[in-house]
Amino acid sequence: MLTYRTDPERLRAIVPEPLELGAPLVKYEFIRMPNSTGFGDYTESGQVIPVSFRGRQGGYTHCMFLNDHPPIAGGRELWGFPKKLADPKLHAEIDTLVGTLDYGPVRVATGTMGYKHRAADLDAVRASLTAPNYLLKIIPHVDGSARICELVEFYLEDINLKGAWTGPAALSLNPHALAPVAELPVLEVISATHILCDLTLGLGKVVFDYLK
Question: Which residue numbers in the chain have pLDDT < 70?
Fold first, then answer.
């Protein structure tokens, strides 16, 4: 997870109310899931924006790209995850942790981080993993109008944190019409964290209905 500073006006245009923004930060994530129950072995990549809702600090998932069809369908239909098919990768290259995202033949994102340079504060990492997460779930009616438009809250559960590290990091994002991660430009990389853990993705609940 690489945290970077971005353009506050572009960030405000993307994050839906009633979610509130603090500092103009984005977390770009590369996630390896080699043993996911029901879904198998796959990788994800995307952007999560730090937000608050009714006084609680959490994260709003802006976009996600996966290389596995079943979790794309399940994530979109059940929770409302903004998942699309692409080709993310995450691996250790000698002394560097390397994350990439390709959309077709086009390289969209490249993140690098020094491999296990310094141990992170496990209590702080655990607190970040237990914070609420938010999604915008939109399902259209047969006539194309919005039939469901909801803000969904979910939590990570059964967290077994095995290790966490920080280190020097860099991130580059390239423009793409259908994978527009570069619309939140990297102005400054603030920090990077490498986390190894087991967890369960808990079911969500609707906390705001835009159609009522």
Answer: none
- What pLDDT, on a 0 to 100 scale, did the predictor assign at position 212? 87
Whether 83 is catalytic: yes
For residue 146, the model assigns a pLDDT of 85
Structure tokens, 128: 């970040």
Which residue is catalytic, options 27, 83, 116, 137? Answer: 83
- Tally of CB atoms within 10 A around 195: 19
Q: What angle do CA 197, 199, 200 make, to 5 degrees?
A: 165
In angstroms, rounded to a whole number, what is the distance separating the alpha carbons of residues 211 and 151? 11
d(CA 48, CA 131): 13
DSSP string spanning the chain? Answer: -EEEE--HHHHHHHSPTT-EE-SSEEEEEEEEEEEETTTEEEEEEEEEEEEEETTEEEEEEEEEEES-HHHHHHIIIII---EEE-EEEEEEETTEEEEEEEETTEEEEEEEEETT-EE--HHHHHHHHTS-EEEEEEEE-TTSSEEEEEEEEE-EEEEEEEEEEE--EEEEE---SSS-GGGS--SEEEEEEEEEEEEEE---EEEEETT-
Spatial contact of 98 and 112, defined as CB atoms under 8 Å apart: yes
